[in-house]
Amino acid sequence: MARPMGPVRLKKTSPLTLVLGGALCIFILYFLIGSSAPDFSASRKASAASHPLSPPTSPFRKSTSTSGKVKPPPVTRYNLNNVTITHNPLDNRENILILTPMARFYQAYWDNLLKLTYSHELITLGFILPKNKEGNTATTELQKQIAKTQQYGPEKDRFKSIIILRQDFDPPLPSQDEGERHKMQNQKIRRAAMAKARNSLLFTTLGPSTSWVLWLDADIIETPPTLIQDLAFHDKPLIAPNCFQRYYNTERKVMDERAYDFNNWQDSPTAQELASKMGYDDILLEGYADMATYRALMAYMYEEGADIHHEVPLDGVGGTALLVKADVHRDGAMFPPFAFYHLIETEGFAKMAKRLGWQAAGLPNYKVYHYNE
Amino acid sequence: MLPFTSSGSKVVPRHHVSGYSNGYPRAGNTFEISPHRFQPRGTTPSHRRRRRLLIRLGGIVAVCALFGLFVWPRGSIFSLFSFGLFSSGDDFQLETVRYYDLSNVQGTARGWEREERILLCVPLRDAESHLPMFFSHLRNFTYPHHLIDLAFLVSDSKDRTLQVLVDNLENIQADEDDVQHYGEISIIEKDFGQKVNQDVESRHGFAAQASRRKLMAQARNWLLSAALRPYHSWVYWRDVDVETAPFTILEDLMRHNKDVIVPNVWRPLPDWLGGEQPYDLNSWQESDTALALAETLDEDAVIVEGYAEYATWRPHLAYLRDPYGDPDMEMEIDGVGGVSILAKAGVFRSGVHFPAFSFEKHAETEGFGKMARRMQYSVVGLPHYTIWHLYEPSVDDIKHMEQMEQERLAHEQEEKEKAEKAKKLKESFGDATSQWEKDKTQMQDIAMKEKNEALTKSKEKSEKPDRPAEALAKAQREEVAEKAEKGGGVVDKVEKVVGKGEKVAEKKEKAHEAGGK
């Protein structure tokens, strides 16, 4: 104890050990850097835009040069004749844009998104969030998950590009609680605001290379992992799966499921008649007892054990999950924030698409699940 | 750990209490300076040895790093050691996440001060001939160019529109003057398989209007949806065939701070058609007649303006122009024309587009105006702020012009004939008089000569230069003699020479000169 140890210990250390140690340090540093900075494959780098002023559906090269003049953006040509939309999107490497208006962030939603088997290299995500306290919280949580996936996650999990938008108007209702949200008198204002949010998201992100647009609500927490391939396989301009909700059945004391989205429907003469008597700005709503439309709802067309690829034509669609050919939106079909044939938002969208010559379809036996509050 | 400071500690201090760091025990007297005895340095002190080792290690690492640099020239190790300061230009990382706050791109009256970006949309089809004119406008815009993103849709073109467009745009971006450079430039190619012809006649025929307008609307929507970005505050639609427009048009329209705003569009005409004419009849205010008419039409019908088939009695922006009126005067309108529209990007973001179906009995830009109104946006026109559309003569005009040209030619021919006739008449008349004169002078000459000869021969020489007629006669005689020598019809020549007054005058001068000598 009385003898100092330092110099003695050093004497025993051979330089070779130190060299090895140094090399090891370098290797560790190398892998640290390698995992913290996204190192993308060549194919991803090739599809990247060279300037930040570019379609947001592609990533862009971060400029690393700190000196010298900034070059003006290049003249870029996009041939939309070559953007294919086929029933086999994966083999044709078709780009998908998944659009989600988000008020609350659910971890299950994100986990489900990561489970999608469609090549993530071809998926662009777009989110729009309101600018209030709730929206700020959701944004923070969303950004945390995005950073986790895009920076530290394995490359196959990383999405092509992600766009986060903040709404430029306030949500009309202070609360997004389910009870408040579904009150009939609030519906028109709420859905008009929702339609505007959807349109803002759609028209700023669509870009020139997208083939399909998948509308997926932030509270869809469970879908088959092959959702995109399955829906695209039908090759329909608009196609909606059936949206259900899992809940605890207090009567039967078991987990059960029930139909959730009532905006997927086939029109009825009663509804037509109701509409014809309505004022110019009035809208028809589905799922309210005091406005019986007698429309055929896809939610109730589900048959246990039947073919999941069974198709039905639809006149109104819901936005919980909906796959749309990009051309439908490019032709101008949007979510009317006003009474369009007495329909609003997604239902009005189906009508507008029809006016442009695109017919919606639904898959009553193909289920996706909504979050239960 | 600081053993000295913790007074109650049982830890034995390692160095300073028990001895010096060189291993000698601490002497009883702490303040003794002199060493106890000389200690030769048999081995290198440990710290020196350590330093040398570190230097060697550093050298190895440096060599390794250099080696690594050659192996992975753009490796990320290098950027770590250099703190990213010297990374080369080709090294890039991908940015996959973009964040935009749409409340920052609302669009204000003085957008250029707040660096608000404009998307300039131009639909093109077989427009090669108009492009040079368009690019001259582009170079002249006073709105900061780097804040303008350009988007073109080239559809179903059979001429060199695309090539000319690309060349011109690349020239602009490569311009030495940084001020000329524009922002993002996208050229969208998409063929819709238009069956409708683009020539003026078929373009404006009534029957073709509805389907033509729907196709135009489709093209506009495709262009917008592919080019609109979350960072745009304004969208400006401009046709290529605008001939004259103020360079400050973007600022001028922006200053009004309206959701949708259009100027008045006229076109110059040839004088025989009145000099000028209202061109864009799609900017109008709704009328009760038109609303009543709309009620009677079926779902897919499209009301188009400017045709006798649909008398709408709407007040048109174009007809309200006063060349001396206040250019800032605004007028609320319901339908808009597409030649030059400035709209806030928020209008398009919220879903307003160019209906490619019959929306409230209207399509394309008129439907756009209607839809914007439906969503409570302000839509105004400036009746006294005028831009000028290119005059392309219609088939009727061309026929008329051909007729006029023929008339003009016929008239010219007539004039020419008349002039010739008059000339001939004059010639023959002039011939006679000059002949008469000549004969007269000759006669006089002869008479005078005879007289002079008879009277005085001495005066003759001095008078000669003063009498051109005599000199002329002499010159003529000489010439005739010359010609006769050369051979030929002497008599004819003489007649011709005499007949042409001008030549005679020339000859007179020559003769005069000769005489002077």
Automatic annotation (TrEMBL), chain A:
Keyword Repeat: no
Name of the protein described by the UniProt record: Mannan polymerase complexes MNN9 subunit
GO MF term set: alpha-1,6-mannosyltransferase activity
Entry keywords, A to Z: Golgi apparatus, Membrane, Signal-anchor, Transmembrane, Transmembrane helix
GO terms, biological process: cell wall mannoprotein biosynthetic process; protein N-linked glycosylation
Pfam family, one: Anp1
GO cellular component: mannan polymerase complex
Membrane topology: Single-pass type II membrane protein
Compartment list: Golgi apparatus membrane
InterPro entries, per database record: Mannan_Polymerase_Subunit, Nucleotide-diphossugar_trans
Region of interest (Disordered), residue spans: 47-74
Matching Gene3D superfamilies: Spore Coat Polysaccharide Biosynthesis Protein SpsA, Chain A
Family statement drawn from the similarity comment of this UniProt entry: Belongs to the ANP1/MMN9/VAN1 family.
PANTHER family given in the database record: MANNAN POLYMERASE COMPLEXES SUBUNIT MNN9, MANNAN POLYMERASE II
From TrEMBL, chain B:
Compartmental location: Golgi apparatus membrane
Matching Gene3D superfamilies: Spore Coat Polysaccharide Biosynthesis Protein SpsA, Chain A (3.90.550.10)
Pfam family for this entry, one: Anp1
UniProt topology in membrane: Single-pass type II membrane protein
UniProtKB keywords: Golgi apparatus, Membrane, Signal-anchor, Transmembrane, Transmembrane helix
Molecular function in Gene Ontology: alpha-1,6-mannosyltransferase activity
Superkingdom assignment: Eukaryota
Residue spans of biased composition, Basic and acidic residues class: 405-429, 436-487
GO cellular component: mannan polymerase complex
Family: Belongs to the ANP1/MMN9/VAN1 family.
Protein's name according to its UniProt entry: Mannan polymerase 2 complex anp1 subunit
Species this protein is from: Lasiosphaeris hirsuta
Lineage, uppermost ranks: Eukaryota, Fungi, Dikarya, Ascomycota, Pezizomycotina
